[in-house]
Structure formats: C-alpha cells, structure tokens
## 1
Amino acid sequence: MRLPLLALLARGPAHGYELKQDLEQLLGAAYPQPNIGQIYVTLARLEKSGLIEGEEIEQSNRPNKKIYHLTDAGREALHAWYEETADEPRVRDEFFMKLALAPQTGLADQIALINKQRRQYLNTMRSLSKLAAAENRDNRIAQLLIEGAMLHLQADLDWLERCQEELEELE
C-alpha cells in the first residue's frame, strides 16, 4: 500500500479518504478494497519515514483534516519503484507444497487436491466474469486488472491439468 499511496500523492496533495476513493475508482471492484484504517496507518508511517508531509487543515462544522503531500525523498522512492521490475516467481506456491507433501503424509489424495483447487479457480473465474460485466466499461484499468487475473487463472488451470496428467502417468 505504501508505494501506490505515494504514486497517488505524486499528482498533488490529498487526504486519506480521497486516496481511498481514488484507488477504488482506479482499480474497480476486482482489486481488494483498501481499509481506511490501513490507509491512515500507512500514511503515518510514510510521514514518519519522511516520504510525505502532512498539514492540518481547519474545517468549519467538521473535524480538521490532514492533507498529505509528497516530499523529495518520497518522489525519489517512487522513481526507484518505477525503475524496479516485478520478479515474483511462483515457486513458493502453497498449493504446490500441499500437492508435493500429500503422498508423504497420507492425509490427502493428490488428484482430489487438484480437483478441489480447479473448482476454486473456476469459481473465481466466474466471479471475475460477473465483475467484468458489471464494471464500468470506461474504466480500462479495472478491465485490464480483471483480464490479467483471468489470464493468470487460465494458466493455473492449464498447469493443474499438466500436474494431473503427470501424476496419473506415475500410477
């Protein structure tokens, strides 16, 4: 949550609720909606680390609000983030660990595990399809997020099929 908040603040000062709304509007319903408490805790940490600065703004008939803006250090951190590539190979996959250990424990059948995981992926794909249909078509970012998730799920389904074929050959 740190770096996405910094990115939103790069375009100008904002308060926590604005940042929450901006994330929700940008990413749509497919992305887990941020908790406002999480946002304010993250903003406090960013401020403490010198990446943002907050300023209390008085409001009549309402509690004061704190507006945050990016510091030079925050802008540098954001530039560094954009320069990094995402390297997240899925070699630490929890499902695969279950699949690999099942024969050793005798507590689960590998094919049953694959079938259960397949059903989960298919249910998630159905949910994403409904979400894509309901999502604002003009929100291309949200549509791309949903499409990417569905492509990953399809790859996971293909991989499950491959695992099942390999395990059935061993029997």
Note: The radius of gyration is 22 Å.
## 2
Amino acid sequence: MRRFTIFTATAGALVALLPLQAGPAAAAPATGTARACDPHLTGFSLPTPDLFTADEVTGTVQASCAPSEDIAVGLATGDRRVTVPPLAIVPAGRTTAAFPLKVREAPSDRFTTKVAARYGADLLAQPVTVSPGLKAFTLRPESDGVYVYGEISLWGLSPTGGTVVRLTSDSPLLNPPATKTVRPNVLGEDFRFAAERVTSPQKVHVTATVGTRTMTAEVTLVPSA
C-alpha cells in the first residue's frame, strides 16, 4: 500500500490538503534485529534554480532509508507556469525518485516562485527563478556572400545582465561566436556574423540554445558577387 500526502499551491502559498495516510503498523522487531525503515523526506533538489521558458529538467526527492513499500511524495509549485506531477513515487527498496519539471511556453518576464515536496510532516522547498527563454531563432535564407544575418526572439523582456544564447554550427564554413547576449529590456536581437567564402552554394545549420531548449535554422552560403 502506498502512503502519501497531496498538496497544492493557492495564492502563492503551498498548502497541505490531505493528512498522511498511515500504513499498516509494523510488528515490533525481535531482539537483535534491525528496526524497520520509517522513511522521512531528507532531500529535494533540482539541477539548477535558474530556469528558462520551455525548460524541461529532472528533479529528485530522497528518503532517509529504503522503505519496504512504495511511498508517494507530494509535489507542487507556487506558479502555474511551472509544472510538476502531483506525486513522485519512491519505490520499495530504494531511497530516491526522479520527477520531471517543465516551464510552460507562455509570454512572461522574469519571475520567482517555489517548487516543494512533502511527505508526512516533512516539507522541503526550493526557490527558482524563471527567465524568458528562446521563442524563435531564424536566419535569412541566404548569406550575402560575406555575412549571415539572423534574429533571436525571447518569450519576454531580457532581464538585467542580458540573456546568453549558445550558438553552434554543423559546418566549418560558418563559425558563429560561441555565445550571443541579448541585451536587457528587449524582446530579441538581430545579429550577423562572418562566413567563409564559398565557390558554390553550401547549406549550413546553426543551432541556438537557451537553458534546455534548442532551435535550429538553415542558411545557404552563396558565393560573393
């Protein structure tokens, strides 16, 4: 039988809805034998507290010991734009469980919220900051023989410090800078970078990444006039 607590977020607060459902009482251990596991929630983590729109990451909950039966840890967030499943199941005989966290694709400037896990009386929470992520990445279909032109668009205004976009190319004919920073307080940025000269048209793909989201665009390098 699974034991669980379910809770949700209301008006920015994480509120318990259901009390812990107690499992069957364990028989008293015989003298000299190990005491049965009585798990507590001791760990709750995300790979990073800094997220972006459209991010998909994996979080982890940890129990103090390996239970003899599955236990279900309640999960919740303080903002509907950040989603987690209602439960993370720690299987019998193990101490950890992974769960997915996703940031919805929706127009929004930077905001801060919390992600939390609860089992019984144990409540652990982690603040997260969500910045506008990559909404669109486009390149002009053809170079002008010297430069490639493109545009980066975000889901909201780039925050203080700007938004770093990682760039890679699948061809040595086009070497974009490793990163391009979108300036603060703008929704996007136009850019250009130099291409190698070619004697015949060559198709090249450039990939842009912000957080866990990656977008790819194609450009044809053409000989200069």
Note: Residues 173 and 195 are 6 Å apart (CA to CA).
## 3
Amino acid sequence: MRCPFCGHAESQVKDSRPSEDGAAIRRRRMCPECEGRFTTFERVQLRELTIVKRAGRRAPFDRDKLARSIALATRKRPIEPERIEKMISTIVRQLESMGETELPSSAVGELIMKHLKSLDDVAYVRYASVYRDFREAGEFATFLGEEGLNDGDEDGR
C-alpha cells in the first residue's frame, strides 16, 4: 500500500481487526520511509457493478458517491454515524447480490429511499426531493401524502 504522506511504495501493517459492522478489515499501517501512520479498510467486492443512468450513460458504481449522497440527506440529523455506515454496507451488499452487473440508477435510488425511510423521515424526504427532482412545494405535499408521512393531527397540523 502506497504511503499517502510521502508516496513510498511500501507500508507495514501494524494492526488488523474487523470494522465495527464486520463488513471490512481495518488495518493500521506505518510507512518505513517517513514513519507516517494511516488506516486502510479492506472490503469484499462480490462483483464489479455498473450503473446505467436515466439517459443511458454507464458509470462504475462508486461506494463513496453513495456515502456522500446519504451524508447530505442525513446532515444535522440525530443519527449515529455507525448506523449510517451499516446502512451503506447493507445497501452495497444488496446491490452486489442482485445477480446483475449492470443496474439501473432507479433501482439504486429506490433502495436508498427504502433504507432512509426506515432510518429517518427527514433524511428520506430530503433524498426523495433530489432523487425525484421536486420543483415546487405541491410536489412535496403530494409525495408526503402518498408516503403516509403527512399524518398531522385532526386540525391539519
């Protein structure tokens, strides 16, 4: 593993252990050249996934992009980072186990929405507003009504 500090081609593994969710191996490494220490994560990748966009363009699946979009939706929400990381790992495993190497972006978006809905309603609506490309407030109201999230009390609040 190349050192991120000095670029030296080799590094020594000082400690290995499973990550919190058990889906990765966490390795503490040290560079013999600059003695910098850093952490890497090793994950099992069942297959290379390609995402087919709405316009037909193909792009390799990017776990980091998935994590960034979920981070935006869950920003400033009272959700433990471990729960978010576990959800991301679960989504990736589900995508890899679908048996297809090419997946439509809509399948990925719907899977993310399903997991966010069970995690946090606000994060779910935030993600859905971007994913479904809401343009006006009426679209939010319609969506909330369809999803059963607009269950105010009897005086309409």
Note: Residues 78 and 103 are 31 Å apart (CA to CA).
## 4
Amino acid sequence: MTRPDFAFSTRFKVRYAEIDGQKVVFNSRYLEYADVAATDFWDWTGIGAALGAAWTETEFHVRHTAIDYLKPFVWGDTIEAFVRITRIGSSSLTQRFELCHAETGALHTTIDMTIVNVDLPTGTPRAIADDVRAYLEALPATS
C-alpha cells in the first residue's frame, strides 16, 4: 500500500498479548508500535552505514508525543506503519507515524513525535551535526 507523502512503511501483526479486556489494542501499545516502526525506518534510511560514527554518536530522546486514536486495532489485524520526518530543527526533529490497517488501508492512528538530540553525559540538547542534517533533509518524503 502507498500513502501520499510517505516513502517508507513497515508491517506487523497485532498479537494477543497487546489487546486489553475490551479486545482491542491497549492504548500504550501504540507507542510500542511507533518504536518498532521508527527502528525499521532508521534501518531503511541507511544512515548508519552512510555516516558511521556521525550517526552512532547521535542520541535522540523522545520529548513530546501526540496521538490521535481514530479506530482501534484488534487481535490479528496487520498494521502498516508509515513513517516520515516532518520537521528538522536545530537539535530536534519531528516524525509522523500513520498506522493503517494493511488490508483495508483505513487510517487508525496518527502519532507526531518530537525527538531531541542529546549529549548523553549531561542530558542536555545538542545541535544536530551538519552531515546528519544534510542526510536527513535528502531523504524522500521529508518536509
């Protein structure tokens, strides 16, 4: 499936352990789905192989997340998670996740997540390196 403005997607199934007493995916699991999708997204970009240490020395931490639950997923659904970068700031970036039903294409959840590049010893924001920024800006569907 394709979605306008997204060059990347990944798929996974809802597991029994992810549903709650109402037989729908428990709300906190959607952040886990975003984490799975983000991991696959970063692998897809090839940034680690392209930039090596410049990327592996970069450490992003979640700063803010906004989630809109439009329709629940249920056990056995296949989710197609679309991911793109919507904003690159001086020390942060925002990713957009759209979680869709893989068979019907219906949009179930949107997640906007801001992550901040931090200096690990101090835990303070650190500017995104120029080569990392250039690489990210060149990705397809980055706006």
Note: The two ends are 21 Å apart (CA to CA).
